[in-house]
Amino acid sequence: MSEAPGRVVIVGASLAGLSAAKALRTEGFSGSLVLAGDEPHLPYDRPPLSKQALRGLTSADTTLPQPADLDLEFRLGVPATGLDRAERTVILADGSRLAFDRCLVATGARARPWPNSAEAALDGVFTLRTRDDAERIAARLRDRPGRVVLVGGGFISFEVASVCREMDIPVTVLVRDSLPLAGAVGAPLGSFVAEVARGAGVDLRLDAAIARMQGDARGRLAGLVLEDGDRIETACLVVAIGAERNTAWLDGAGLATDRNGLRCDRFCRALGADGTPADGIFAAGDVAHWPNPHDGGALVAVEHWGNAVAQARTAARNMLAGDAAALVPHDHLPDFWSQQFGLTIKLVGLAAGSDAFAVVRGSMEERRFLAVFGKAGRTVASASVDSARWLPAYRAAILEGAPFPPLPGGVDAPARVAMQSLEEPTR
Amino acid sequence: MRVVVDLNRCQAYAQCVYAAPRHFALHGREALVYDTAPDDADRAEIERAALACPVRAITACADDLAALDEAGR
């Protein structure tokens, strides 16, 4: 792939796709640049959708800023249906074909649907992923439903529950596990979030699962019955049980895809089914399944804003690299944030798989603290609650795998670090 | 205009809140809420907020492309 590309096609018109387009132009690419997406909207930002937009504080129009001189050709509202590697062509649902020298797969993920399709089709059962989803749910919240039910123990559930409480709408969160968020941020932070949510008036049900939903004669959700027999009356339920990666359109392309997404190497090059880089094809964002250099190259797929931006930039640089020696690795340290119940929770590194946890500044009682996660005696992640200014200081410690637990007794730090062992989260 | 804030970077220094109080607010100690689509007439205020941010977390652009989206291409 040493010839300079003349035509780049980016499939997926969201944060990763737009970030790649901007980076390609910044890196000097002057050829034709097409951005194709299945939604009719220009690339928009998702994080505000589950927070301020849902509450109606701001519009659900979160169109991302884009420089006027990007010289992008948009193909919006038409999903991609295939990729022909031999012909170097992306095929769209309307039959049109987009020839490319380099292709970026940035098709992201979609909300995992409720497995019972008859229940999922009831009026009042929602998922939250897109701008249109947010507008539908926001409209329903404006009508002040008697109770909103969230299904799922992830950050989206708690963000939506937080919005409902701010609007003084009764809300129930159903979590299948014995703690929320334990897989992502460990049991102590999961317990903290559970306590904060309960304190804000959320009816949090742990070890809870839906046996069946009940509709009325007009196909509207009326309530649900839990496996323990409890019935909850509700006409508004948001399914937030994770995401599925959008790779079905790549079936038959001979690429290494599975439920974790499209496998790529550390240079963001998509791998073929034979495990070697597919010529001219790259991946970035939620759809990418990539080796994390900060975890010994273990494969990871994250749905994080920061990774979408960073990976898109690396992929863009590598799409323009003249030869293998010019390739740059994707060495982003995963990070994310959540806002709920007036608190800002941030995490850097990967807490999943950590074996120890210590609060090193502040305290959970005052709801303002910084915590560090250890794995086999090394620092692997750090979380802040309303202490964001401390977090960058720990990024360096994570990058170099500094010893865990950290030294106690520093400025503004406790005299001794109370370390907690973490067990594998129960499933 | 179109505004996006990199909330990984944001550390709640709140300089944007002082520079453009009608478009940026803190809910709680650190949760930034911001206007994603402010009016073009407020451009100077928004640009002042972006410049005031000590961690360079705010990106704002004029809105040339929004009309195209309305047309539903």
Automatic annotation (TrEMBL), chain A:
Cofactor: FAD
GO molecular function ontology, one term from the record: oxidoreductase activity, acting on NAD(P)H
Any one GO cellular component localisation term in the record: cytoplasm
Highest taxon in the source lineage: Bacteria
Keyword Flavoprotein: yes
UniProt KW keywords: FAD, Flavoprotein, Oxidoreductase
Domain (Reductase C-terminal) ranges: 336-405
Ranges of residues in domain FAD/NAD(P)-binding: 7-312
Protein's name according to its UniProt entry: FAD-dependent oxidoreductase
Biological classification of the source: Bacteria, Pseudomonadati, Pseudomonadota, Alphaproteobacteria, Hyphomicrobiales
From TrEMBL, chain B:
Pfam families: Fer4_13
Highest taxon in the source lineage: Bacteria
SUPFAM superfamilies (UniProt xref): 4Fe-4S ferredoxins
UniProt protein name: Ferredoxin
